[in-house]
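>> received
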Amino acid sequence: MSSNVPPLLEGASRTLAEFSSAIRYPDIPAEVIERMKTSVLDSLGCCLWGATLPWTQHVQAMVEAEGAMPVASIMGRGARTSVAGAVLVNATAGHAFELDDIHKESIVHAGSIAVPVTLALGEQQVSTSGRTLLAAMAAGYEIGTRVGNAATMDLFFRGFHPQGTSGVFVAAASAAHMLGLDAGQTLHALGIVGSQAGGLMAAQEGAMVKRLHCGRAAQSGVYAAQLAQRGFTGITDVLEAGYGGYLSTYSGKPNAARLTDGLGSVWEAGKVGYKPHACVTSIHAALDALAHLMTTHGIQPDDIARIEVGLSPMTYTHCAWEYKAQGVTAAQMNLYYGLAVMAYDGMAFVAQYSEDRLAEPRVMDFIRRIEARVDPEIEAMGAPFRHAARMQLTLRDGRELAHEILHRRGSPENPLSAADVEYKFRHVVASCLRAADIDRVVSLVARLEHLDNLHELMALVVAPRAQAWSLPPFS
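>> returned
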């Protein structure tokens, strides 16, 4: 049957495999290297905080019970396990609290996959340099985000979670590069991992499993590269196959040209952005628009009679569903809850998503004053503006105020600086690391390309830490 269906872009999988396997540190633009270093710091913060959370601890306990060969470490735990086990736990931790970096077009959080994968394999190999790590990360970011670009938002609208689907290609390319696979082996690694892609977006409405999508993507990439290294074969046209290929199956409206557009001259890895809020990226513009109006005009929550917010169709579908206090995951994915805590606290960070806030009466009351809709003008702007928001407040004294944000903070058009990300890192890990250790991690990552090995950095991030959240009884 497959022979009767033409490929979407003949040879694209092989082209990406050849490019990925050939990447060397000197070939990577300086600005991309700097972005990768920033992503290392940001992702380590996500993993360290995520390791303290109950959903990660469930995965950690399961992996430790298996008693695998101890060659790679679980962050914040000190325990060692297999590479595949370590990345399952560490990547789950990286995506455990909606803090991880994001590539806007692909909707992939590459850091929470690539950093655990490269660090675990680097630890197994003992003498990995910082430059080797950065090159492997860049390979993973570049291949995975290009796959997500080509899948388009249609993958999301079909109900798939990009982190568990397109994210597997981040992991496979990173792992293949760390293992030194050649182009043919890398092609098979991509061809193996494409069959392991998965993750359903319904998980966002309260299930712990959304976090596991990231861990499984990372683990699948490791397995794919290890199998390819042993001569195991995968689908050699996995991305472009007209029948049963990744794009033709996961996306009804793929843009296959985005797989290779500008390959080697335009680095998608350099377009990654970072989150100032601990929640789904799609609502960040709305949160900042509300904060702007309240701060500029000295407004208190009780002054607001009604909020109307215009969104893109994707953000409306993704985030504007009825809030029912289903759990932390649901709160972090929900527009209404995010706006309510922003109104009262002026931020939507770690403390705003603690269990004791999720059904707070004043928050639930404020939510009833919010109305969301698809804004036709934002919709007409297309995919590049899917995070845009138009905010209008009606105050109890009759005044009406409006503010529009087309590009959220942390996007390629409105980026956070490396200093902003360092500030975020220090805040996130304040309860996980000693002050001196925080300083040392920041220093080591800043000079990562000059490190002959990763021993000191790994010792700092894997050492056992107190658990910030207790693990609830299993039921």
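>> The two ends are 46 Å apart (CA to CA).
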